[in-house]
Amino acid sequence: MADAHSAQVQTKYAGLAHQFEDLAQQHDADTLGIWVFLVTEIMFFGGVFAAYAIFRWLYFAAFAGGSHLLDIRLGAINTVVLLGSSLTMALSVRSAQIGNRRALVFFLLLTMILGGAFLGVKAYEYHQKFVEHIVPSLDWAPEGDVLARLAPGGLDHAQLYFFFYFAMTGLHALHMIIGIGLLLWLVLRARKGSFTPDYFAPVEVVGLYWHFVDIVWIFLFPLLYLIGGRY
Amino acid sequence: MSTATLEPRVQAPRNYLNADYGWKSWLFTLDHKRIALLYMVSITFFFMIGGFFAVLMRIHLIEPQGALVQPETYNKLFTLHGVIMIFFFLVPSIPTVLGNFLIPLMIGARDLAFPKLNLLSWYIYVIGGLFTLYSAIAGGVDTGWTFYTPYSSTYSNTQVTAVVVGVFINGFSSILTGLNFIVTIHKMRAPGLTWFRMPLFLWALYATSIIMTLGTPVLAISLFLLALEHLFHVGIFSPALGGDPLLFQHLFWFYSHPTVYIMILPAMGVVSEIIACFARKRIFGYKIVGFSSVAIAVLGFLVWGHHMFVTGQSVYAGLIFSFLSFLVAIPSAIKVFNWTSTLYKGSISYEAPMLYALGFIGLFTMGGLTGMFLASLATDVHLNGTYFIVAHFHYIMVGGAVMGYLGGIHFWWPKISGRKYPQGWAALAAAIIFIGFNLTFFPQFILGYLGMPRRYAFYPAEFQVLNVMSSAGASILGVGYLIPLIYFIWSMRYGPVAGANPWGAKGLEWQTSSPPPPENFTQIPVVTEEAYAYAAEEKTSRG
Amino acid sequence: MSHQIVPVKTYIVVFASLIGLTLLTTGVAFIDLGAFNTVAALVIAFCKMLLVIFFFMHLRHSGGLVRVVLLAGFFWLALLISLTMSDYRTRSWTPTPDAWSTTAPPTHP
To answer: Taking the model in full, what pTM does it have?
Structure first.
């Protein structure tokens, strides 16, 4: 009977869902599933990248002016932090693969901390935009040196640039927050011993998601912070 | 086998319907078959609401100055009719009802790859629907289902944000369904079921899933940007502030054109299954038909600019889109040729599913051919924004997709419910629907050609006769839709018990009981024959 | 499960390369290369992405199906951007009549 068989299978392969024949098929399906999901995310972010590309081409001077107001050091530091979190994420997947539970938990926590650090820097940068009154619609009143930098490209077009800055980094930050939540879920499961070298697909799946979010930032950094150069 | 003497109250064997009871067993189910029924009930509900708005519009249009509502209300009627019918009925219909139910059965699996995601996608659909219903109740939306900027982003003071949130949320339901289907078809086929032994319904749903996963996210981002613009007025879609309204249209139509293929491809898959069964013949050119589904999915992404020929889009981009739009007609035409060739020298019988399939072929062909007028730049200038467009897409969406859905429900109802429905009433309903449909929408081709604009609450008096004809047709169509609702519900209690394979059809789903057990198969089948291996059984009696 | 276990050293080397490329792209921004600044930035970002995909995301050891899926994603994104851009880039090919001003709003009598 199907029930007795699946009960047997369940005890032998902890974590096997009933619709799959074996853990290999389940792992394959989970991996393909997350990659297909990441492709949907490519199209989602891609839409706003397409819009950005059009407006950057139309109003390059305004975009360059706005870009020069971003703190390039903070952007670079954040890039390094996020790349570091990708390293720790890859190391946590590796720890799960070799069955090292303590290392797995350690690297997951480290990834969370680095992700949190990224968000902290981002929050500071957002705060700076309010201080300088260059937040589209909510607090748009550039003055002094900031105004002088933005005026040549056109203030309306500069506001468009900052709209893209907030929309794109905001969407990215939202994905980071979700990622940190997923990492916390993994930490809790890992501490209970849910993952073995035969069953660690959730760690790999979250890892792939995290790396994708990192790749989005790999493009956001030059596209938002490095427009028009700083010479 | 005939079991006409079996009383409905005799203990039925354990199946997915009676294996568990109570509302929790339905609302927290992970069984793809039960989830399919949850969807069936929900989309029927939304179909009735969208249909109600259509009825109000057709009543209003009996008089040239409008017989029922104020123009502002009329604008809300056509907007919500479009939003609900497209996003909450047509897009989900065949994939979430027939696809969810049949894919694991057709590939010989116990369930889809991700049952929890499947249930989640239904809840997401319901939540999206609730937001949309709220927008209707809280004052309505008057932008058209296309939400064109800058009206929707800057000037309209209707419930734009609420409806956009509803559609945005619903998009995730689509994405998760498509993702589930793609992984299931790739990774969970039974031993021996190669790609080229799969039923064409699976090829169609696979192609549909490609569109769902690649296109819907772009709708999501376009609605997200629209909502931001509506709330913050930064100017991305406003010319006065340096933005471009056409940017919204590019992003919107990048999804919304392929979505028409989401709506029609599954119906084409259903038609392939029905034609093969009721002509007792393998589908002519099986591989070409399978590839044409994928070709439609791919080419469908290249043509969106044909919705924007008269908007100020570059005429050179228009040229490219026009040429590609002609190309995309080819794989559709290939299907029609292949179905026709299948019918030739087939052993044809005219049960209800076949009536719907044959109706589909005729009406879809008409709708598709009229698309050629619209793909052509010069004629589109005259026909765009008129009732010609309305007739064109209703021929495909209603004459095509809805007939395909109804045909599929009639074909697989014995499998889903374990009961048969009365053939006489089913044939009558199909005929009423066919007549009512043509009476409703054929006059609209003429109206559009004569210049009557769409989305107008009033029209010149010389168009009244055709409008009255159209409204009369709509009432007949409405009656036609109600009849199956009645006999299907009736059949669940009083219909004769169907056996495992009442039509004598090929396909793994017919090898298990009707209704199937919760785990679909007592033993995972091994596939040894090609799809539609009807050749050896030209004169077999059915039942 | 045929899952290669990537050595820690590989990950460290990839990470170091990623940092190096980050420093490179930041440094190049301070040099005037005209239009090539944008090209350089995108090329470097592309290389960083490939490193993450192939090593951190294990695409090196993944089957062909995953690679096709990913390629499809990029291809579709390229379609979206290029066909949309083709509208904007070619609008100016059709001359605008002199009477249509592109800056001042029309004045009505």
So the answer is: 0.93
